[in-house]
Amino acid sequence: MRAQRNEKLTLGYMRANQPWDILPEEYFACAMPNKAKPPLFFYGFAFPFSGTFTTSIESLTAMQRNIPAEYDWSDREKYTSADAICKYIESRIEINVEFRIRRSLVDCNPDILFIFYIYSSWMPHQPKAPEWVSQLAKVVAEIFEEDLGWKAPEPKWYIDNYMRAYEDDLDFN
C-alpha cells in the first residue's frame, strides 16, 4: 500500500506559502520521509530590495557606518557591509551555544535582497527550532535597531536560494 501524497512536500506549495513564522515539522531534514532531502530553510530577517541594487547597498552601508569605530568591522575598505554587520552582531551576542549570523539569498522573492539568518532547518535533531532560537532573534533584532539603526522585520523561515534551479513540481514525498 502506497503512502498518501502530502501536497505540503512539493516545492510549489512551499514557495506559495513562504515565509513561515513557524516552519512545518515536515520541512526539517530530520523529519523527512524515506530520507528525502528537503530544501534548506533559513530562519532570519529579510533585508529588503529597495528598488535598485545601489539603494539597497546604500542602506547596508549606512548600517555599517553605525558600527562603533573601536570595532574593525566599521572599516568599509576591509569589509563588505553585510559581512561587517554579521561580525558585529556576533560580537555583541553572549550565548551558550555556537552562534553565527550569515546572509543568504532566498528563493523566488524579488522584494528581498537577502536574509540575515540565525538558524537553519538542517541543524536540529527534532523537527522544530529550539527555544533559544526565538530568544536569540529578539536580541539580534534589538541590535539591528538600537545599534545599527535598522528596524528589522519579524524573523521568518525562508527557502534557500539554491531551489531556484528547480520547478514547482519538484516532489519531496
Give an overview in words.
The protein is built from 4 helices and 4 strands, in the order αβααββαβ. By secondary structure, it is α+β, with helices and mostly antiparallel strands.
Q: Give the topology string: H per helix, E per strand.
A: HEHHEEHE
Rough outline: globular
Oligomeric composition of the shown chains: single chain
Note poorly predicted spans. none
Q: Total helix count?
A: 4
Beta-strand residue percentage: 5-15%
Largest sheet, spatial ordering of strands? 2-3-1-4
Averaged pLDDT, please? Answer: 90
Secondary-structure class: alpha+beta
Give the beta-strand count.
4
Compute the separation of the termini in Å.
15 Å
Q: Radius of gyration in whole Å, from Cα?
A: 17 Å
Largest sheet: number of strands, sense, barrel closure: 4 strands, antiparallel
Helix percent reads 25-40%
Overall tally of structural domains: 1
Notable traits:
four-stranded antiparallel sheet; globular; alpha+beta; 4 strands
Précis, in short:
This protein has four helices and four strands, in the order αβααββαβ.
Helices, strands, pairings?
Elements: H1 11-17, E1 41-48, H2 53-65, H3 81-92, E2 102-104, E3 112-120, H4 131-147, E4 156-159
Antiparallel strand pairs: 1-3, 1-4, 2-3
